[in-house]
Amino acid sequence: MRSLGSPSAPHTRPGDLNTVRNLLPYLGEFKGRVALAVALLIAAKVANVGVPVVLKAVVDALSGKPTELVLPLALVLGYGALRFASTLFGEIRDAVFAKVTQRAIRRVALRVFRHLHGLSLKFHLERQTGGVSRDIERGTRGISFLLQFMIFNILPTLVEIGLVAGYLFLNYDWRFGAVTVATLAVYIVFTLLITEWRMVFRRTMNDMDSSANTRAIDSLLNFETVKTFGNEDWEARRYDDSLTRWETAAVRNQTSLATLNAGQALIIGAGVTGLMLLAADGVATGALTLGDLVLVNAFLLQLYLPLNFLGFVYREIKNALADMERMFDLLRQNPDVADAPDAGPLQVAGGRIEFDRVSFAYDPRRPVLHEVSFVVESGQKVAVVGSSGSGKTTLSRLLFRFYDASSGCIRIDGQDIRSVAQQSLRASIGIVPQDTVLFNDTIGYNIAYGAPGASQSRIEAVARAAHIDGFVASLPDGFETRVGERGLKLSGGEKQRVAIARALLKDPRIMVFDEATSALDSATEAAIQQELERVAQDRTTLVIAHRLSTIVDADEILVLEAGRIVERGSHANLLAAGGIYAAMWERQQRESAEPGAVAS
């Protein structure tokens, strides 16, 4: 975290300046609206400063001898017109600039959203969803405040103060201008110093707010697990731990705000008193008229409100910049896996897959794969089996290029997948994962996700192929039935059949089944296995399997242990060899024959 009291940046930190610069391009889309808004801003401030001047003329015209009094109708009408114009120009300005602000928020939010989807799997495995969503929410809200108040409040307020001070210097004793400028300088320096000090508490509040939100969302997403283990109180204590630290920072933030407000009031009160003493003395000696006293008093009132508002706006802009800083930090995250500058689309002909001496490690201290080499010829079905942690699922992640291999090469139809566009690579591969996570939407939407825009007839066809049509028909809302957060309203088998239907709808040249029937009962598994075999025909298929009975027809079976291929061959050849695969087969056959046994 940057130092808040850096002597080289007493007003704003370099990060703040970069944040403001990052927003400027989003204003370029509506240059005409911005120019018009600035013109209206200037007009409103000129009218505002002219009000006390006209008021002075009215008072002086009415303060003569009773026999000489004449109603200054034109001045009174002018006074009212300036008052109205000041408000009118401000309201029109806000209406003109509204589209600029909302479009900027929309574009920034979309950019962050796209960027998050462009980051690598490693980032998303390590991120905290609740904290990220809160950072984006606060950041976009900060953009709205920054654009509205920094551009159309701080600058015009300073302009108005400059006009008032200049008028006093030119038309009155120099002491009037000197007191005004001195009050302004002391007020601004005091406000900046105290606000910088207070930002420490604001940042702590943000951190604790994100932490509490992350814990709450994580706990609610795992509601069933929490209830199963009876850990409601434990979760509440963890949540309250973050809230307690947030409360401490919030109390300090509020007490420091009271200190700031009291100091500002003292400075303004001293300045007002000094100016009124000078004005009253001038009237008493005859150097000033009653209208001059009214003018000075009106200027003081107009200065007091902007000065007080300037302190509020500066504090809120610093808060907005702190909120936006975390959001823009997301944009500075670089993907671990990126397309090459000259990457073109993958040209899929037969769909031949080749792993050539591929090694990989999530952590350099713990290698997962060691020089794995195998080929899945076009139209072939190759299965990978092995114990948990042997590296089976890592093969599919590397094939999708969620990670890049540490060494070696993966090719599809002779093309190194690192040289092609990731989007085209993933468009050519379909997957049915072991752990199916669904969107909190309808069954129909989740199936159609395999090919957005697919017709209802196609959705129903793949649902029949995945043997989920009967289940859907039994639901009151059919395909419009919502599945709940992460698909929690469906059983494991139902979710997996939705995933199979989704993959069938995508209709890719290459299919990956990552223990695709592990959550199904034996009868349903047998039916779907036949459908998967039909789907796999004429497609290149990589099967990551635990139940060996589902891969007996594979053209080749690879046995993976500790990241190395220790056996390979057909089902019959591996049984005849009497090695690891044969032992696994014998154990699963024995377990399946025992009453109530479940293959582990």
Describe the structure.
This protein has 600 residues and is α/β, with parallel strands linked by helices. The chain has three domains: 15-331, ABC transporter transmembrane region fold, CATH 1.20.1560.10; 341-428 and 508-600, 3-Layer(aba) Sandwich (Rossmann fold), CATH 3.40.50; 438-505, no CATH class. The protein is 62% helix and 9% strand. The protein has 18 helices and ten strands. The strands form two sheets. The protein has a six-stranded mixed beta sheet with strand order 6-7-8-3-9-10. β4 (407-412) and β5 form a beta hairpin. α2 (31-62) packs parallel to α5, α3 (73-118) packs antiparallel against α5 (129-171) and α6 packs antiparallel against α8 (232-285). The longest helix has 54 residues, at 232-285. The radius of gyration is 36 Å and the shape is elongated. It starts with 13 loop residues before the first helix and ends in a 7-residue tail after the last helix.
CATH architecture assignment name of the largest domain: Up-down Bundle
The topology string of helices and strands comes to HHHHHHHHHEEEHEEHEHHHHEHEEEHH
What's the β-strand tally? 10
CATH topology of the largest domain: ABC transporter transmembrane region fold
Question: What is the CATH level 1 assignment of the largest domain?
Answer: Mainly Alpha
Name its key features.
ABC transporter transmembrane region fold, Rossmann fold, six-stranded mixed β-sheet, 18 helices, 62% helix, disordered C terminus
Give the gist of this structure.
The chain folds into three domains: 15-331, ABC transporter transmembrane region fold, CATH 1.20.1560; 341-428 and 508-600, 3-Layer(aba) Sandwich (Rossmann fold), CATH 3.40.50.300; 438-505, no CATH class. Helices cover 62% and strands 9% of the residues.
